[in-house]
Amino acid sequence: MVPKGTHIKDKNVTYYKTANLDLQFSEKVPYHLDGELFFDQKFDIGILPGALKIIYNPQGPHYFK
């Protein structure tokens, strides 16, 4: 966990904005999907605007500010 945005000014962190990301590895790498462990070499990651719904209690304990 990254407490309260301390990563934003970290010189070791690089930021990119994109709608799609394609990753290819020379060998299969592990990843988790819905709690299950899988291995693959190629990933095509895309952003679906409005597809993720988040519900939280703004009065409760959390790290969102």
Give a structural overview.
By secondary structure, the protein is mainly beta. The chain has a domain at 3-46. Helix content is 0%, strand content 38%. The protein has no helices and 2 strands. It has strands spanning 20-33, 36-46. A two-stranded antiparallel sheet has the order 1-2. It is extended, with a radius of gyration of 16 Å.
Name the beta content range: 35-45%
Class computed from helices, strands and strand pairing = mainly beta
Question: What's the number of extended β-strand segments?
Answer: 2
Identify low-pLDDT runs.
none
Order of helices and strands: EE
Calculate the mean pLDDT score and round it.
Answer: 85
- The whole-angstrom Rg is 16 Å
The largest beta-sheet arranges its strands as: 1-2
Brief synopsis:
By secondary structure, this protein is an all-beta fold.
List keywords for this structure.
single chain; 65 residues; mainly beta; two-stranded antiparallel ribbon; extended
List the helices and strands and how they pair.
Layout: E1 20-33, E2 36-46
Antiparallel strand pairs: 1-2
